[in-house]
Amino acid sequence: MIIKEIIDILEQWAPLSYQESYDNGGLLVGNPIAEVSSALITLDCTEEVIQEAIDTKCQLVIAHHPIIFSGLKKLTGKNYVERTIIKAIKNDIAIYAIHTNLDNVSSGVNHMMAEKLGLKNGRVLSPKKNILRKLVTYIPTDHYEAVRMAIFEAGAGHIGNYSHCGFSVLGSGSFKGNEHSNPSLGKANELMNVEEQRFETIFPDYLEAKVIRSLKESHPYEEVAYDIYTIENEHTQVGSGLIGELENEMELADFLNLVKSQFNIKTLKYTHVNRKVRKIALCGGSGSFLRFQASSSGADAYLSSDFKYHEWFDAEGHLSYIDLGHYESEQFTKELIFNYLRKKALSLQSQISKVNTNPVNYL
Alpha-carbon distance 146 to 139, whole Å? Predict the structure, then answer.
């Protein structure tokens, strides 16, 4: 496979447009048309991981965290970032990062955490806005069904657990082509009035080119009339964090032990809450920015990492903040990516890195 084909498969799952504005996901090193046969999957890309890729003959490293996060002005090997990039380039190893876009899809990092804890009825804690578009177009009645279905097949019309969502109203459209036109209905220089359906549907912004292409290819008119609107509606399947429920209420101490067991850790930081817990909010990685959403959601506990000292006071006894560590919260992301690629990229040999990239140690 070429790298671009692998990227397309990954971004069908976690579109790059879903990443946060500060992020730097995507292909960071390498030629998108280069052939690869094997990929190494890791949480972080380090010098040791690149050496592992060399030793195992992997031409592509797929990492969760981008090795290049802020701008690089020089490559002199003065720090681990520059040394890692130099080593990858010298050995013709490509590096791709799938970061906050994978955090923000409902089947991504937070879903994996929720599965480990056995949470039910999971939903996005803080859905994204301004990533949906509305298409309005006008279709002659005889072609309405074919054009509508082509638009749906391109990915439009999904709202939550429903597909093929659209609205239409019957009306009359008019047009008159000039001498250079080749109308499918009527003749050049002839005013036409045609019974048409005004059709509306929505789609995520990253699908715009595909949706418009399907509209134009399926529509009978030489010139297709359509409008695209940006809408502020929340995309309920895309956003930060997750909230779900345990099968049964638990004492906080029992839930903490469940977290330690499922995430294979010995130490947790937490605030106490004087009640049993059942409704759990969580966010992989640095999630303290969602602590107020977790509180307003009615969660009994909020599981994430990288809380600053003064942020712990914001729990105010309403819920328990639980910090299990950044690496620890995202450790299963490697498994998540591996399982996805195994199903979708049959000709690609992928393997999970054996390097423990966690820079934090506990005594």
Answer: 10
- What is this structure's pTM? 0.91
- For the segment 261-275, the average pLDDT, to the nearest whole number, is 95
What tens digit of pLDDT does each residue of 138-195 get?
999 999 999 999 999 999 999 988 999 999 999 999 999 999 999 988 899 999 999 9
> What are the chain's domains?
3-99+332-352 (3.40.1390.30), 105-127+239-324 (3.40.1390.30), 130-233 (3.30.70.120)
What's the rounded Cα separation, in Å, for the pair 41 and 286?
A: 21
**Has residue 48 got a pLDDT over 90?**
yes
Q: What is the CA radius of gyration of the chain?
A: 25
**H or E element, residue 201:** strand 191-204
Contact between 272 and 320 (Cβ < 8 Å) = yes
Rounded Cα distance, 237 and 15, in Å:
13
Average pLDDT value for residue range 263-287: 96
Q: State how far the Cα of 170 lies from the Cα of 196, in Å rounded to an integer.
A: 6
Nearest to 26 by CA among 42, 50, 10, 37: 10
Q: How far apart are CA 120 and CA 130, in angstroms?
A: 28
Q: How many CA atoms lie within 13 A of 167 on its CB side?
A: 6
Look-up: residue for tokens 């910090």?
323
Show the DSSP H helices in the chain as ranges.
Answer: 3-13, 47-55, 80-90, 100-104, 109-117, 144-153, 208-218, 252-262, 291-296, 326-330, 333-344
Which one, of 322, 313, 318, lies nearest residue 258 by Cα? 322
Report how far residue 97's alpha carbon sits from residue 330's, in angstroms, rounded to the nearest whole number: 14
DSSP state of 59: S
CB burial of 184-204 (b: ≥16 within 10 Å; e: otherwise) equals eeeeeeeeeebebbebbbbbb
Residue 128 — pLDDT band, cuts 50, 70, 90? very high
How many Cα atoms occupy the beta-carbon half-sphere of 319 within 13 Å?
A: 23
Contact (CB, 8 A) for 125 and 243: yes
Amino acid at 2: I
